[in-house]
Amino acid sequence: MEGGAYGAGKAGGAFDPHTLVRQPHTILRVVSWVFSIVVFGSIVNEGYLNTPSEGEEFCIYNRNPNACSYGVTVGVLAFLTCLLYLALDVYFPQISSVKDRKKAVLSDIGVSAFWAFLWFVGFCYLANQWQVSKPKDNPLNEGTDAARAAIAFSFFSIFTWVSTQPTRPTLAHRARLTGRGLPA
């Protein structure tokens, strides 16, 4: 692999799915995608309860509809963002302009930091609302595993989004790839 702009090979090469799948940030992006599905899926499927005495559903997180709405919204938007940046990862080798590559990499870094922050807020918010939930609101413990799963995967998502930063080869790695020594 010859050195190129912003950690990618030279533009215009053929699409290689094997190389794409082996890149660490692509793997982490897929993991982030799965985690977002777990979070919004858990809340949508088992995050709302109702009692026979009440006709209306309520959120399992302290009867706070904003907590469920935040978890679902962040999960769905993170899902869509992962798809968008996976598409960018596929298209990235075809970008020939160094300026456009730089914009793509910088937007990836900024968006990853933003989503790590949103997941941190979501983890804190869901964990707090779960902590102050009253046992009398859910005497049969329905949906508790799903609520805990949403909290746990919100926490795990913080690290997957922080880790999806695009990797750039170091000088030593480039020297090994090209067969040339390090600059003096």
Description:
It is built from six helices and two strands, in the order H-H-E-E-H-H-H-H. It has helices at 17-22, 24-46, 65-91, 98-131, 144-163, 171-178; strands at residues 48-49, 58-59. Residues 169-175 have low confidence and may be disordered. It has one domain (16-167). The chain has a two-stranded antiparallel ribbon. With 184 residues, the chain is an all-alpha fold. The protein starts with 16 loop residues before the first helix and ends in a 6-residue tail after the last helix. Helix 2 (24-46) packs antiparallel against helix 5, helix 3 (65-91) packs antiparallel against helix 4 (98-131) and helix 4 runs antiparallel to helix 5. It is elongated. This is Synaptogyrin 1. It comes from Rousettus aegyptiacus (Egyptian fruit bat).
Approximately how much helix is present in the residues? 55-70%
Helix count equals 6
Unreliable segments (pLDDT under 50, ≥5 consecutive)? 169-175
**Widest beta sheet: strand line-up:** 1-2
* Count of folded domains: 1
CA gyration radius, whole angstroms: 21 Å
Topology:
Elements: H1 17-22, H2 24-46, E1 48-49, E2 58-59, H3 65-91, H4 98-131, H5 144-163, H6 171-178
Helix pairs in contact: 2-3, 2-5, 3-4, 4-5
Task: Offer a few descriptive terms.
2 strands; mainly alpha; Synaptogyrin; transmembrane helix; Marvel; Synaptogyrin 1
Short description:
The chain is mainly α and 184 residues long.
